[in-house]
Amino acid sequence: MTHKTLKITLYNNWVVLYFLIFILIGFIIILIYLNFQSDFLFIFTILFLIQAIPAMYLYLEYWFQNKNEKYEIYADKLIKYKKNKKEQFDIEDIEQVIIFMSPSLYQNWYIHFFAIEQYHFARIYLKNGKKLIITCLLASRVDKALLNLKGIKIEKKKWLFNSIYTPESWY
Description:
Layout: E1 4-7, H1 10-33, H2 38-66, E2 69-73, E3 77-82, E4 85-90, E5 94-101, H3 103-106, E6 121-126, E7 131-135, H4 142-145, E8 154-158
Parallel strand pairs: 5-8
Antiparallel strand pairs: 1-2, 2-3, 3-4, 5-6, 6-7
């Protein structure tokens, strides 16, 4: 039986951080060209921090949510591993799956304007009242990874700043 394994990898980290790294390199190249003039240094530092602080917040939030976790997704079940504990959820145990993503990911655009646009996650609601959170640190595209689950309706919601702690009523 084929399955998809979701875990934190170097590639998934690269996917969420590449835009921020790209911005940093671009700013450094421009500053070198401008001989690190203090006015430009100040402006570019502020612009970079406007991009970096929200992105790093989401990165850390997602990291702490999914560290030491691994998921295996089959057509009829979902298996969660955390440390030495294994939990299996059959397709009948899943009530609903909602994926929270930026408008650019929702539209499948490859161009981003903000470093936070690559961050997205899925909230899996179980019939027993529990919720599972699968972030983009486990799968570069959570929506595509969860397509392995057959017979489950996956709802997508657009939101720019996809914090796992955002109240659900805001979406």
